[in-house]
Structures are given as structure tokens and as C-alpha cells.
């Protein structure tokens, strides 16, 4: 006699295997639904929370970038025209390259040519003064003629 009961008891029950796999599928389906719900919640919170702070941060960074680009443009034009740092800081006030270049060209022309009124403050006199008769009379009073 052969023992046939051992071979049939080793095989798993097909219905229990199907139910086991269905249980695993339901478990992972529930996890996926929970993950999607958390993701949707995080996206809603992040968009409502980040709208103000992110947009203001972007605006601040754009303003800083524009300022840095303007400063670089001023320095490039300043050095191209040979202007001092003080002159460039005070007198180069344009916002675009054409205006800054025009200002720098004008300023460089003034500083290269030097003073406009070259004899301003000079104490030279030319010719005879109009009051020379009065001076001669005053000088004659104080000279010793005795």
C-alpha cells in the first residue's frame, strides 16, 4: 500500500492562496490611497503656504539681480571712460546703457579738458590802473621832500 495522503496534504489549498493574494492587494491598495491623500494634502498646503513667501522671495532675488547687473554696467562704463569711483557713484545716474554711456562721455570730456576758466582767481593786472593819479598824489604826500 502506498501512502497517497502525504502528497495531497503538501499541496496548498487554491482558495486560501487566492484569498491571501487578495488580502495583499487590498493592503497595498489602501497604502496607495493613503499616500495619494497625503500627497494631495501636502500639495495643497505647500501651494497655499508658499504662494506668499516664494513669490516675495523671487521678487527680492530679481531686484537684487537687477541691482547687481546695473552696478556691473556702471563699473564697466566707468572704467572704459577712466572715471574715478566718486565721480561714477555721484554722477552716473542713468538706468540704461545708452544714458550711462552719454553721461560718462560728457563727464570724461569735462575732466580731461581741465578747468574751463583757466585764469579764474589769477591776480594779474594789465595796463595802467585808472586811479594812478590818486596814487601818485598820495605817494607825493608821504615822501620826504625837505
Can you tag this structure with a few keywords?
single chain; 146 residues; mainly alpha; 5 helices; 75% helix; rod-shaped
Q: Which secondary-structure class do the elements indicate? A: mainly alpha
The count of helical stretches stands at: 5
Give the C-alpha Rg: 48 Å
The overall average pLDDT, rounded, is 80
Low-confidence stretches: none
Number of strands: 0
Largest sheet: none
Shape: rod-shaped
> End-to-end span in angstroms?
180 Å
Assign a percent range to the helix content: over 70%
SSE inventory with pairings:
Layout: H1 5-10, H2 14-81, H3 85-91, H4 97-113, H5 132-142
Model description:
It is rod-shaped and about 160 Å long. Helix 2 packs parallel to helix 4 (97-113). The model has no long low-confidence stretch (mean pLDDT 80). It has 146 residues and is an all-alpha fold. The chain starts with a helix and ends with a helix. Helix content is 75%, strand content 0%.
Please summarize what this structure is.
The protein is built from five helices and no strands. The chain has helices at residues 5-10, 14-81, 85-91, 97-113, 132-142. By secondary structure, it is an all-alpha fold.
